[in-house]
Design brief:
This protein is mainly α. Helices cover 44% and strands 9% of the residues. It is built from 20 helices and 12 strands. The strands form 5 sheets. It has a 3-stranded parallel β-sheet with strand order 1-2-3. It has a 3-stranded antiparallel β-sheet with strand order 4-5-8. β1, α1 (16-31) and β2 (35-38) form a beta-alpha-beta unit. α16 crosses α18 and α17 crosses α19 (480-487). It is elongated and about 110 Å long. The model has no long low-confidence stretch (mean pLDDT 95). The chain binds one RNA strand through β7, β8, α6, β12 and α11.
Length: 508
RNA sequence: GGCCCAUUCGUCUAUCGGUUAGGACGUUAGAUUUUCAUUCUAGAAAGAGGGGUUCGACUCCCCUAUGGGCUACCA
């Protein structure tokens, strides 16, 4: 039975790299009939950000990623917030000390900083490891009595893992294959912190994954360097035989390929890097894909393709399609640059195939904000005319406003180009034809007016663009006749009359 | 600096030893269109470099280069 977890830290908004990790975990779980768990890793009390957890829950919901078990839905392994599980971890840390695989260290932050500074001054890297641990104030070199006294009088301590010396740690990664690291290059990581009396990520992660019976750990590549630590931790705890399998995902890079994508890139690109708008109580906010007009289905489709391909040429896929084809061995090994252009194109694909009813539902509230009364049927019809011109949901209003509001000003460039010579006079004659119609039907109106223009030998482009200018106020939109049919005869007549009244009749 | 990971068109990728190295975004040129879009057609565009292994390497191995990640009582 497959059990995977997405385990973010509530330190701010979840950026698209995190969402993609969640997505891959979710796809993997669904593909194997498994369980997708949401666990909050809030063991860094110093970086906790109020509202971040709620943001994560809402973001997953918007993406259509359904949590089976975890924070906000509960489950058999509750609680799923590590801060609420704090008493669990100390037990395992002290167990490791008892076994001799970990030890108490009493160095102060100042002492460590001094040590680090001295090493750096000598041009060497500082590592808290086998070479130095015997020379520091640790339980390794103390008498039992001395240790008991320090522990008893409340002296601050951390528990560090005693990384073995010169051992080849052989690991398996589902995406990268075998990875081997010599343990002497690793340091004695802190497992349990003195400051907030909470475990570090490494301990809490291993303990919870074990307790929650996680079968596969799918996480970002930034965790690969700590995989050896996790391996030896599982071994020390006696859990090697049930330890999960690991898959380290390639990173999502900045568009220029220089480094991991970050919040600042969003500002620089003028493009969202978060699923939802983020408005923290303090600090800077950030825009979201949702608010920028992306459809959730398009968003996850775009994200899924950043580092995974089903093989072959398929690109536009629903969540169900992706579940059916997802497998970790088709995840690529190299980092993927985020491409705003491709993201926009995918969204346009989804938008063009959205139903008019769905788009109208989005547009109606915007119309209400502009105090526009329109029937759902009318709005749906308008959506059918504008959607192929839209890339983002937010384009809809700009593309459709002239169907609801007569132009109050006219695009000067278009005026300069077409509202000249005899064109206004020709338009006045078109007006008479339109006036004579009871109703406007696209095909018949087109036939009638085109015939007139041809028979009178008038310039087709000049007349039609002038007509469009009077109707729309710009050189955009569907066929003039479709527009007139939508607007209705009365409104069409009014708009042509208004243009003839407002714009100068001729420039002779 | 040390350790680890990676490397196919500008970008995302397909290829799992034998292909004219395919697709998509973007881009260029056309067509369609009264406009803006859409759509369609065509084009340019890639295996980092050097060694091996092999009858044959983009594909396997090694070295170099380049890029990235990690190197906290952060995750």
């Amino acid at each position: 039975m497959v059990r995977v977890r997405f385990a973010p830290s509530p330190t701010g908004a979840l950026h698209i790299g995190g969402v993609r990790t969640a997505l891959y975990n979710y796809l993997f779980a669904r593909a194997h009939g498994g369980t997708f768990i949401l666990r909050i890793e809030d063991t860094d009390s110093g970086r906790f950000v109020p509202g971040a957890e709620q943001y994560i829950v809402e973001a997953l919901k918007w993406c259509g990623i359904v949590v089976d078990e975890g924070v906000s839905v509960g489950g058999p392994h509750a609680p799923y917030r590590q801060s609420e599980r704090s008493e669990i971890y100390l037990k395992y840390a002290t167990e490791l000390v008892a076994k001799g695989d970990a030890y108490y260290a009493f160095d102060t932050a100042q002492e460590l900083a001094a040590l680090r500074a001295r090493k750096e001054a000598a041009g060497e890297a500082f590592a808290y490891n086998f070479q130095i641990r015997e020379k520091l104030r640790t339980s390794l070199t103390m008498s039992p009595g001395e240790l008991e006294e320090l522990l008893g009088n409340g002296t601050q301590y951390v528990i560090r893992y005693k990384m073995p010396k010169d051992e080849q740690i052989v690991m398996q990664d589902l995406i990268r294959g075998q990875v081997i690291v010599n343990s002497s290059t690793l340091d004695d990581k802190v497992l349990y912190k003195s400051m907030d009396h909470l475990p570090t990520y490494h301990l809490a992660n291993i303990v919870d994954d074990h307790l929650m019976q996680i079968t596969h750990v799918i996480r970002g590549e930034e965790w690969l360097p700590s995989l050896p630590l996790h391996y030896v931790l599982y071994r020390s705890l006696g859990w090697s035989d049930t330890q999960p399998q690991f898959a380290h995902l390639p990173l999502i890079l900045k568009p220029d390929g220089k480094g991991k994508l970050s919040k600042r890139d969003g500002d620089k690109l003028g493009f969202a890097v978060f699923p939802l708008q983020w408005t923290p109580e303090v600090g800077d906010g950030a825009r979201g894909f949702r608010e920028d007009g992306f459809l959730p289905d398009a968003f996850i489709n775009m994200l899924a393709l950043l580092g995974w391909s089903p093989g072959g040429d398929r690109e536009i896929m629903t969540m169900e399609d992706m579940v059916a084809d997802f497998s970790l061995d088709k995840v690529s090994r190299s980092g993927a640059r985020f491409d705003p252009d491709k993201a926009r194109w995918i969204n346009a694909e989804y938008l063009h195939h959205s139903s008019d009813a769905f788009l109208a539902e989005y547009l109606m509230p915007i119309l209400r904000e502009h105090h526009i009364e329109a029937s759902v049927a009318y709005v749906e019809h308008v959506c059918s005319l504008v959607k192929e011109r839209a890339t983002l949901l937010t384009d809809l209003w700009d593309l459709s406003r002239f169907y609801f509001i007569a132009p109050t000003e006219y695009d000067q460039k278009v005026v300069a180009k077409f509202w000249k010579g005899d064109n206004p006079r020709h338009l006045a004659r078109i007006l008479e034809i339109v006036k004579a119609m009871d109703t406007i039907q696209e095909q018949t109106a087109q036939a009638t007016i085109h015939d007139f223009i041809t028979q009178e030998g008038l310039p087709m482009g000049g007349v039609m663009n002038t007509l469009r200018l009077s109707l729309v106020g710009a050189n955009m939109g569907a066929s003039c006749f479709a527009i007139m049919e939508t607007l209705g005869q009365k409104e069409s007549v009014q708009r042509i009359e208004q243009a003839l009244k407002i714009l100068p009749m001729n420039d002779n």
